[in-house]
Predict the structure.
Amino acid sequence: MKGPELELASEKLDKINYLPLLMPLIIKNKDFIGLTQKQVDEINDWRNTNKTPMVAAIEKIARKRIAIKQAALSPTVSSAQIVQMQNEIFRLQREVLEYKLSCREQIVKTFNDENWISFFMVLADEDIGIAVPFN
């Protein structure tokens, strides 16, 4: 799986992840959200450090999910091997979850109240299946 095929698999995978990928939405709407250059720099520092390994883990999950489906149809693959494959997917999902929680922490630390209000307006316009929280 390469290029567009892998990207499509990653997008589909993101739709079933427990936490959404918010960083691309924030960067795309940084002016509307009202981020200062300092805030953008802080977010970009996190992104520059974590984006590549997180995307790599998401891509591995996509490949391993395809592999486990193929293995499930093979009479030469044991149930124990399939369980091992699934455990590796769980491990990678946990890794992605930890990246996303780290991203969330960075956003919480970086945003002020006005940023949150504007960001909730952005979320309301997006079709990402998130209800805007009310505090």
Summary: Residues 52 and 96 are 11 Å apart (CA to CA). The radius of gyration is 18 Å.
